[in-house]
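check this one:
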Amino acid sequence: MEDATRDAVNVLRELNPAEAREAKKELKAGNANFFPTTDWAKLTLWTLLILGLLVVGVVLASGAIPIVKEGGDATSLLVIVSGITAGLIGLFSKGPGQV
């Protein structure tokens, strides 16, 4: 962090919650272009995360196929691929209480 940013964060930490909220509003108003106002940053982050996991899964799965064909043990690669698959399914599935 830059010194000015670090100083601002330290000042905000010392304020009581009501003053901190007001100071954050003023900080955002004064630096409107610094803070994203849309969900674009979140969407980009999630897109990169999901695409990155899919790429890693495909690469590992495609690496496991020749190993298995040659009679080798590709268990470690397949464990990672199954973990990625389960994680991606878990991102989009509803929880037990949300049916």
